[in-house]
Amino acid sequence: MCVQRLLDNTPSAHRDYEQLQQAERTIHKLAVKINSVKESKHEEDLQETLKKLELLLITDVFTTCLTIIAR
């Protein structure tokens, strides 16, 4: 955001303009990668939660079946 403001207020003929553009592109790419990692981690967390729920359901169904059979 700070680099974007600098870029917005720097004349395109300024000697640092191209470097500011490159910095802005690099920061954007980094932000996209960070966001991608966050989403990936979130998906991994969801998968882990689903596995735990499946295990609980299987255990509960199995226990219920054993109880019914025991009667």
What does this molecule look like?
The structure is a single chain. This protein has helices spanning 2-8, 17-70. The chain is mainly alpha-helical. It has one domain (2-70). The protein is rod-shaped, with a radius of gyration of 27 Å.
- Please identify the structural class as seen in this structure: mainly alpha
**How many separate domains make up the residues?**
1
Any idea what the shape is? rod-shaped
The helix content, as a percent range, equals over 70%
Low-confidence stretches: none
In percent, how much strand structure appears in the residues?
A: under 5%
Give the helix tally. 2
List keywords for this structure.
mainly alpha
List the helices and strands and how they pair.
Elements (H helix, E strand, L loop, with lengths): L1 H7 L8 H54 L1
Summed up:
With 71 residues, the chain is mainly α. The protein has helices at 2-8, 17-70.
